[in-house]
Amino acid sequence: MAVSTDDTLTVHKSLRELGVKFRLISDAKRRVINLFGVLHPEQGIARPATFIIDKRGLVRYLYIGKDYSDRPKMSLILQALAWL
Fold first, then answer.
1. pLDDT tens track, the chain, 84 positions
2. Coil vs helix vs strand at 14
3. Fold of 2-83
4. What one-character-per-residue DSSP string does 16-53 give?
5. pTM
6. Bridge-partner residues for 59, per DSSP?
7. Which end of the chain, C or N, has fewer beta carbons within 10 A?
8. Which phi and psi angles does 38 have, rounded to 5°?
9. How far apart are CA 77 and CA 50, in angstroms?
10. Domain boundaries, given as residue ranges, for the chain
């Protein structure tokens, strides 16, 4: 699942254009983004973040980027998933 600060119409347009197969939800009011602590303090947008949450709701992996291009390597994500 992914969360976007875009409004619902923009999210649906992005889903169609990108052809993604995962769920993308709109958080234009930034409620989820604030709950997870990923709101960029100066830019007012979400920093890129990756959370792996297990079936019990425990966060097993967390990466919060410093800016829009700071994202974890796929190998780190796959390694974290393998530990579950």
1. 888 888 999 999 988 998 888 889 899 999 998 999 998 888 878 889 999 999 999 999 999 998 888 999 999 999 999 988
2. helix
3. Glutaredoxin (3.40.30)
4. HHHT--S-EEE-TT-HHHHHTT-B-TTTSSBPPEEEEE
5. 0.74
6. 53
7. N
8. -115, 10
9. 8
10. 2-83
